[in-house]
Design goal:
Blueprint (H helix, E strand, L loop, with lengths): L4 H20 L1 H4 L3 H6 L6 H12 L2 H14 L14 H15 L5 H9 L6 H34 L2 H4 L12 H51 L28 H10 L4 H17 L6 H7 L4 H32 L7 E2 L2 E2 L4 H9 L4 H37 L5 H25 L3 H25 L5 H21 L5 H21 L6 H11 L6 H10 L9 H27 L2 H21 L7
Antiparallel strand pairs: 1-2
Helix pairs in contact: 1-10, 1-16, 4-10, 4-13, 4-14, 4-16, 5-14, 6-12, 6-14, 6-23, 7-8, 8-10, 8-16, 8-17, 8-18, 8-19, 10-14, 10-16, 10-17, 10-23, 12-18, 12-20, 14-15, 14-23, 16-17, 18-19, 18-20, 19-20, 21-22, 23-24
Length: 608
Amino acid sequence: MKLQAIDISIIIFYLVMMVMIGWFYKNKARQNKESYLMGGKKLPWYMLGLSDASDMFDISGTMWMISLCFVYGLKSIWIPWLWPVFNQVFNMMFLAKWLRRSGANTGAEWLATRFGVSGKGVKASHNIIVAFALISCLGFLAYGFVGLGKFIEIFVPWNLVKGYIPFEVPAQYVAHFYGIIFTLFAMFYSILGGMHSIVVGDVIKYIIMTVGCVAIAIIAFTHLNGRQLNVPADWQNPFFGWRLDLDWSNIIDDANRKIKEDGFSLFGIFFMMMLFKGVFASLAGPPPSYDMQKVLSTSSPKDASKMTGFVSIVLLPIRYSMVIGLTVLALLYYNQINIKVNGTADFERILPAAINTFLPVGILGLVLTGLLGAFMGTFSGTLNAAQAYIVNDIYLKYVNPDAPNKKIITLNYIVGVVVVFVGVLLGFFAKDVNSILQWLVGALYGGYIAANMLKWYWWRFNANGFFWGMASGIVAALVFPFIFDGILPLYVWPLLFAISVTGCIVGTYTAPATDEAILKKFYSTVKPWGFWQPVHQLVVADTPGFEPNKRFGLDMFNVALGIISQCCLTILPMYAVLWMKLPLIVTIGILIVVLSILKKTWWDKLED
């Protein structure tokens, strides 16, 4: 174990500080439900943006990105479009302010502003989005819990610890034991201090993570120092044709095996499918998790736009400084780091192996603290979202609408503990981290997109259509792995999307349209663009001076510029560490031009 006293001290100091933050914000969080769950909707947009970025900086995702960067080189910047990462650009340009204009506290509460509180399908649509949110929250809690435990196990071998533990822990549950320890810290400060302590804790973690990532980039740059990396010819080129054309033969043969297993060889087709799915997923808006909660917690629609734009700026350059830094170190000293399992290279082990091998005392402690904080931030944000849905959308809606403030806060505490317990329990039953992630992304989010896209842009779409669109999509996504075994899920996604759209349309036309008064209020308050002409005419009849949203063209132009700037922010630290001077200068030039245009076409035109 390379951890020294100073590294351990940094980690312990951070954990104690998180507990103190939760205790400090305890009374402020207890003022009312909105203060506890949303920070009173008074937190600065830049702090919420830093918090949101911190929540996205998770351990498992970073391990995956580094493995991609090692194998695919600079072409790896495109693969996270699977999520898609550019959904933040759509949120930044128009969806965040649309969402915030509702004044809702959760995604389920938002549905009431779109479909009303009574009528055919309304209760079903409310219930399915609550169920979706809770299942995804619990899944991500289990995902983070298992991933953290496996990560800690590498740095703190069990044989050094077991002598101090007064009970026996079976070998297969050591990772779970570590996960429980750090989960208890995250649970304490997030349950006690609510959104206030979560955001402040995330900001502190972001500062620690930034120092660690920049240090890694500098260390890698110093070690590289003009040396040539032993990589395929096209590794340093971010652009691609129909085929990937990366051949690791006679360099690292296991990398060719990974490319074949991933199914990304036909990279041109893969990219087009990612873009096709990504645009629809982005048009659906943020899913009902910590990301949506941060948007709804902003003080105004204008601040919601600023917050989501800020996320990419503060997240991507810092995260990719770590990604390229550890990749370069792993490539330079591949034979010195042990990433093989049963004789085969596991490229996701590069992150722990490289930081354990190359980081000096102190920096190692900072990086580990930052990664621990990354887990705790994601965990606490997800926990807060789960609490909001159970208390706000189940208890206060169906059980006790007139509950006093003291009872609501007490219930939040109880719900928080129960949710953590269930999430940890699910972690024990999960086979591995990847199995949870694949199910979440494949099944749950596969059924989410169509219904949540149509709700913004089509006036006739109703609660019945929302329910059947989500239900048909989720069922299809659960069945597809058995029907299309061995096929990359992305390639069968168009069929899944078609089934979900069919459910949306059939469900919509088997029930009456949403009440006119609800549609008029939603359209005049949220001001979406899309197929709203019949509702627009009704609103104009009541308010002749009403101006519709005519920004579709400008919004799409800004989205294109935003995606370009996001790509530049991603590849900028990669060019800097590799010291590719001309591409670096060109990237900086493009970024300056694009941001200058966005200053005039987006920032100067922000409104509530």
